[in-house]
């Protein structure tokens, strides 16, 4: 039987604006002016073959607010706009252990999960309680993931695993030790959800390094891999936080974008 083809939606739960100089690694203000950088906050909904799958799930509203991040729309409200209840979610791919990707993993009572083994081990490592790591993923969030694993609900990915027919998760590292990409067979070709392997198109298009990483070489390796994938026929790469995604693809409900339907090259 051939793999199912999925519908793929990007759900935007928040928007923010910062400075480009704080977004990119070693941004040289003597050579280029600073400017505003708009950031959108997404997670992704895949539906096909009778399955409802999420890639990531957004930050928890209260924990996000403590970091100065404010939610425009609750992730569960966005799912309900797409006709999905929390109990309908069969599987959640956790692209990496940062608060804006794992904050709501406790909300899906019937879901199984997958994530990179290296990420799972890193978050239990000896330095996981140092401040910068605790800021990016709080102990409460790590504990939720560990509890799900104890319940036997987590598949740990070593290199590349097809977590469901037509949905492959592969390890790239770089941004975090176990950052993954998710490749989806969609109704309009292959869609590669980069999540934070590239926050913005320009990271992989121009090798412009994001300012937070675990391993710079692996992050460049991920950009190269994304460029290669993006050059393949009928394959598109979707970065994790780029406002251009919300312009390029059809908005089918407020803040819900159909990634199988491109409306502009902008
Ligand atoms: Zn993120």
From TrEMBL:
Q: What keywords tag this UniProt record?
A: Hydrolase, Metal-binding, Zinc
Q: Name the needed cofactors.
A: Zn(2+)
Q: Which residues form the Metallo-beta-lactamase domain?
A: 40-241
The keyword Heme is assigned to this record: no
User: Which InterPro entries would you find in this protein's record?
Assistant: MBL_superfamily_lactonases, Metallo-B-lactamas, RibonucZ/Hydroxyglut_hydro
> Metal-binding: present as a keyword of the record?
yes
The record's annotation in Pfam families points to:
Lactamase_B
PANTHER family (UniProt xref): METALLO-HYDROLASE RV2300C-RELATED (PTHR42978:SF7), QUORUM-QUENCHING LACTONASE YTNP-RELATED-RELATED (PTHR42978)
The family assignment reads:
Belongs to the metallo-beta-lactamase superfamily.
Recorded protein name is: N-acyl homoserine lactonase family protein
């Amino acid at each position: 039987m051939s793999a199912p083809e999925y519908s793929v939606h990007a759900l935007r739960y928040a928007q923010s604006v910062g400075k480009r100089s704080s977004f990119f690694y070693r941004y040289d203000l003597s050579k280029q002016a600073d400017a505003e950088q708009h950031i959108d906050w997404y997670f992704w909904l895949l539906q096909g073959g009778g399955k409802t799958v999420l890639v990531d799930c957004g930050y928890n509203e209260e924990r996000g607010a403590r970091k100065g991040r404010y939610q425009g729309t609750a992730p569960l409200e966005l799912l309900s706009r797409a006709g999905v209840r929390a109990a309908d979610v069969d599987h959640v791919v956790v692209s990496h252990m940062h608060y804006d990707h794992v904050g709501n993993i406790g909300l899906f009572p019937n879901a199984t999960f997958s994530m990179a083994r290296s990420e799972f081990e890193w978050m239990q490592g000896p330095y996981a309680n140092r401040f910068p790591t605790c800021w990016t993923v709080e102990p409460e969030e790590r504990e939720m993931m560990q509890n799900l694993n104890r319940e036997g609900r987590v598949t740990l990915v070593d290199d590349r695993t097809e977590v469901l027919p037509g949905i492959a998760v592969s390890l790239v590292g770089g941004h975090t030790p176990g950052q993954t990409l998710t490749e989806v067979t969609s109704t309009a070709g292959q869609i590669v959800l980069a999540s934070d392997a590239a926050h913005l198109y320009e990271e992989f298009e121009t090798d412009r390094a994001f300012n937070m990483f675990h391993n710079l070489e692996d992050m460049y390796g991920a950009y190269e891999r994304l460029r290669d994938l993006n050059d393949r026929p009928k394959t598109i790469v979707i970065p994790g936080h780029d406002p251009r995604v919300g312009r390029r693809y059809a908005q089918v409900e407020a803040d819900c974008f159909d990634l199988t339907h491109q409306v502009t090259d902008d």
